[in-house]
Every structure is written in structure tokens, then in C-alpha cells.
Amino acid sequence: MAMLHTVNKSPFERNSLNSCLSKSKEGSTILLIEDAVVGALKGTKVAEQMAAAIANKNVCVLGSDLNTRGFAETDILDGIKIVDYAGFVDMVAEHSNVQSWL
Amino acid sequence: MSDGIKKFMFVNTKAPYGTVYALESLEVVLISAAFDQDVSLVFCDDGVFQIMDKQNTEASGMKNFSNAYKALGDYDINKLYVEKESLEERGLTLDSLMDLTYEDEDDDWAEKPSINLVSRAELADLMDQQDVVISS
After folding, report:
1. Chain A contact for B94, CB < 8 A?
2. Count of A–B CB contacts within 8 Å?
3. Which one of B62, B87, B92, B135 would you mutate to disrupt binding with A, by most A Cβ within 10 Å of its Cβ?
4. Domain residues of chain A, as ranges?
5. pLDDT band at B2 (very low <50, low <70, confident <90, very high)
6. Which residue among A1, A82, B70, B108 is buried most deeply as judged by most CB within 10 Å?
7. Cα dist from A72 to A60, A76, A88, B58, whole Å
8. Average pLDDT across chain A, whole number
9. With contact defined as beta carbons under 8 Å apart, do B78 and B40 qualify?
10. Per the confidence metrics, is the pTM higher than 0.90?
11. 3-class secondary structure, A61
12. Residue of A15, A33, A38, A68 for testing the chain B interface, max B β-carbons within 10 Å
């Protein structure tokens, strides 16, 4: 099974999302958590880059971290899946390996 | 400055929750209100996320401190500057933010908005006019 990548830093402050996107294989899963959830928003300066990732990778965002920061399902790009804590645990179990981009 | 009042500007540049900067800065701002200084706040870069409306920490179990920003007006802290370019880069508008207001004692306590939308260039001028600038 493919790799699970987690990203936890804002793409507007650090380069970790960019590093993750450029070093993750097609078919892998990318989960945005903590301050990285804003990378899933519509209309940002990284939205185009995210749309390209959505086309060939499984992009997800942690819903509770999204809500904590004042965002809802309607604020995020089409094609990004929202997961909860239980879903996060399942994803870790289902993937062969986890890489954390900090 | 002979009256002992200095112009303090707190510049918030970090997103809330992921790190403790936003909460710590807010606490320092609230303390500074006790010293009758000329205080203003800036929200730029990821700092604009600090005053997002509808923050809901129920599922994450974190402490939701966003309501404390609504109390700033009661402490006579009513000069909040939000950088326009920072909002745009993040796909946000003023409507995305909390409705932060104060009551103007010189105008029959009329409720007025505390948030001022400013450009990057205007912000540079505002920073230039301060006695003390504290960034976080």
C-alpha cells in the first residue's frame, strides 16, 4: 500500500507542503493537519498547486483542525476529503508507511 | 512623550493553535491595557487567521481563545490593522473575520468597527510611527 504523508505547517509560512507535494508519488495519500489545513482552502496562492496534487493523489484534511480555525467543508477545494480522528488512525493503519513533513 | 504615553504596536504574524505565539501575544496585549498606553494591533501574514470568525474547538478539544479578541474594545484597544494583501493571498475577505467593535466614548458610546483594512505600504508607515513594536 502507498505511503501516507502528513503535513502540519502553514504553506504560507514554511515550505513543507511544497516539499511534500514534490516528493510524494502518484497514488499516495496526503493528510493536512494542524496549521497545514489552510492549504486546503479555496482561492489561496497555493490553490493551483493543490489542484494539481488532487488530480493524482489522495488529498485529505483533518476536519477538527479545520473547524478549530474557523473553516467549514464549503471553504475547501473540491476533491479534498475531510477525515476525523478515527479516520486518521485508520489511514495510519492502512498505509505501508507514514512520512511526517514538519 | 512627556506625558509618559508611548505608542505600542503588537504585530501578529502567526496562525493560532499550531503554536502558542497567538495566545501569548493576546495575553501581553491585555496586560498592556492596564498601563494606559497607546496600543494598536496588527494582523498580517498568517496572523490574519487569529481573528477568523466561527472558530470551533469542540472536536479538537483545544482552548478556544478567540472570544477574548472581542473584549479588546472594552479595554480601549480599538486600533486593529489587518493587512489586505495577507487576506487576499489566503483567499479571505473582511467578512471571513470576527466582527470586532468598540464603543466610542467621544461619540455617545456609538458602536464602531475596530478593524481597519490597510495595505502593506500603509502598514510600513504605521510601524514607522511607533515608539515600541513587538512582533510575534
Report:
1. no
2. 71
3. B92
4. 3-101
5. low
6. A82
7. 14, 7, 18, 13
8. 97
9. no
10. yes
11. strand
12. A68
Interface touch A70/B91, C-beta < 8 Å: no
Say yes or no for a CB contact (<8 Å) between B55 and A68. yes
3-state helix, strand, coil in chain A (%, to 5): 45, 25, 35
Asked if the Cβ–Cβ distance from A12 to B19 is below 8 Å, we say no
Mean pLDDT calculated for residue range A96-100: 96
- % of chain B surpassing 90 pLDDT: 93
HSE (side-chain half, CA atoms, 13 Å) at A33: 19
What is the distance of C-alpha A61 from the center of its chain?
5
- For the record, the C-alpha cell of B100 comes out as 470586532
Q: What CATH number does the domain located at A3-101 have?
A: 3.40.1260.10
Neighbours of A100 (CB within 10 A): 13
The complex scores an ipTM of 0.90
Domain edges within chain B: 7-135
